[in-house]
Amino acid sequence: MNEFRRIAVFGGVYANAEALAAVLSDARARDVERVLCLGDLGGFGPHPDRVFPLLRAADVRVVRGNYDEAVATGAADCNCGYTDPRDNAYARISYAYTVANTSSINRTWLGTLPAQLWVRLGPHRVLMCHGSPRRINEFLWESTTPDGLLRRLLADHGADVLLCTHTGIKWHRMLDSGARHAVNVGAIGRPENDGTPRVWYAVLTATPDLHVEFVPVAYDHEATARAIEAEGLPREFAQTVRTGWWTTCLENLPSRERARGRF
């Protein structure tokens, strides 16, 4: 298990090369020893092949997300875990576009990604996954994930810290007086339904106590929005990138998270 003092972790690239480049630049300036990604490299955004060279050049370790798994295996859909017909309609459009625009070389590489990664951050054993350790597309929302479930996931896997993504909205919870932690690192491919176009990632530092900092990053979101439009993707995607308000995937949100948004 690799050991570090300070790491940067992000999720949900969603084919947003402009945001990825900005986040990698910001992380380099923060003296992190390793940058890690919790999966879903494609989906939502334009030109998915543009994110792969950025990840490789920065030596980013990547966990397999549901989107990565589906694209690699040629699955019928993205296995995103949505239940609402409208959410699934947009997901089908995004998935078909991503598959059609991801090269065979990159699809093969996606198939090599691990389902989990482990690191030691000071004294803390850190388990990283996409949705949850038990299911790649499980949504661990802040408002609906009980402490008991988090304790069980940590205990079952012998971890002190659980890092996940998939929901697209960040949160951090300390358990047992700070002895254990659960962190949803959010996503960098689209804003987190907060009315600003910025995106977020997490920096974790062992002091030796665990310190979690969520870092906002501004990027050329207008370039991403214009590329979405030029590629014929839904205008709702471009609207989200520009305004910071989700226009899709809304029915999947728990009531407390949805109440923070505009729609």
Can you describe this structure in just a few lines?
The protein is an alpha/beta fold. Helix content is 32%, strand content 21%. The chain has a 6-stranded mixed β-sheet with strand order 1-5-6-7-9-8, with helices on one face. It has a 5-stranded mixed β-sheet with strand order 4-3-2-10-11.
Radius of gyration: 17 Å
Helix percentage = 25-40%
The class by helix and strand makeup works out as alpha/beta
Overall outline? globular
- The average pLDDT score comes to 97
Q: Which regions contain 5 or more consecutive residues with pLDDT less than 50?
A: none
Order of helices and strands: EEHEHEHHHEEHEEEEEHHH
Sheet-strand content, in percent, reads: 15-25%
End-to-end distance: 44 Å
What's the topology here?
Blueprint: E1 2-4, E2 6-10, H1 17-28, E3 34-37, H2 51-57, E4 61-62, H3 66-73, H4 85-100, H5 104-110, E5 117-121, E6 124-128, H6 147-157, E7 161-164, E8 171-175, E9 180-184, E10 199-206, E11 210-217, H7 221-230, H8 235-243, H9 255-258
Parallel strand pairs: 1-5, 2-3, 3-4, 6-7, 7-9
Antiparallel strand pairs: 2-10, 5-6, 8-9, 10-11
Helix pairs in contact: 3-5, 7-8
